[in-house]
Amino acid sequence: METRANYILIGAFSAATVVAAFLFLVWLTGFEGDAELQTYDVIFDGSVAGLSEGGDVRYNGIKVGEVTKIALGADPRLVNVRINVDGRTPVKVDSQARLEFQGITGVAFIEITGGTPTSALLEAEGDNDYPIIIADRSAVQQLITSAPLILTAANDLLVRVDRLLGENEGQLSATVRDVETVTGTIASNHEEIDQIVKNLARASEQIAEITEKMNGAVGEIEQAAGSYGALAEDARVLVAETRPALEQLSNSSVPEVDRLLRDTRRMIGSVDRLVVELERNPTEFLLGNEPAEYGN
């Protein structure tokens, strides 16, 4: 009886271990027995290297399905990848798919990005059995596609650089020697260079002082200009105030001055004639026209 009881315990433990392992695998794979799957065809233009059947399909980074088939399309440049995803995944008409890579292992998966909330769900059209998603090129795909062109361009550049260096080797050597000469000259005359730098620093300080003084002089000039402007304004006001009086004085005095000048001219004329007569014949001028008779 004891041996039989041990067998029963061993069998129960084994069965429990198998059930636990099965449940763990179900949890690990995210399997849901009653989940409805939706099939889509994803069309890639170019290589899908790294992607294999059973690969992950993610929606905004969340695993929602897997790759079930990879085949060439009617156009040999295109690759048709069939995927099954959780039927509750909101794949919209403006959703986008692209090939991405996980970490540094190079394991590829399909990443689907959600569309706008108001967009309609993607459905099959025409004679297509499943809805079709046109995949975008990912950065990695673009890099893989353009890698040969980049390598070719880099190789051409290296060839040109090597040719250029070979053709100008002598000039480059001379340039290096000149640089070494200049460096040696600077090293041997560092004291003079230090003195020049100090002189430049002192000159800069003196220029700063002169500039400050000039700024003060400019301020004084501006102040004097302001005072002159005020004085000119005062003179203008004074002239404006005295102009009517000056005009009145001029209008009333000019006729009197004219008469005075005319009388003065007549008086001067008379005096001139008197002087002439006096010089010509003073006796006749003083005693008259008849001379004195003596002895009569």
Question: What can you see in these coordinates?
Answer:
The C terminus is likely disordered. It is built from 5 helices and 7 strands; from the N terminus they run αβββββββαααα. The radius of gyration is 60 Å and the shape is elongated. It is α/β, with parallel strands linked by helices and 296 residues long. It is 59% helix and 17% strand. The N and C termini lie far apart (224 Å). A 7-stranded mixed beta sheet has the order 5-6-2-3-4-1-7. Among the domains are: 31 residues; 105 residues. Keywords: Coiled coil, Membrane, Transmembrane, Transmembrane helix. It holds the Pfam family MlaD. This is ABC transporter, periplasmic substrate-binding protein USSDB6C.
The helicity comes to: 55-70%
DSSP strand tally: 7
Give the overall form.
elongated
Q: Give the neighbour order of strands across the main sheet.
A: 5-6-2-3-4-1-7
Order of helices and strands: HEEEEEEEHHHH
- Termini gap: 224 Å
Overall pLDDT confidence: 76
Q: Pairing-aware structural class of the strands and helices?
A: alpha/beta
The proportion of strand residues reads 15-25%
Estimated radius of gyration: 60 Å
Largest sheet: 7 strands, mixed
Coiled coil: 193-220
InterPro entries: Mce/MlaD
Domain Mce/MlaD: 46-115
Transmembrane segments: 7-28
What distinguishing features does this structure have?
296 residues; alpha/beta; seven-stranded mixed beta sheet; membrane; transmembrane helix; coiled coil
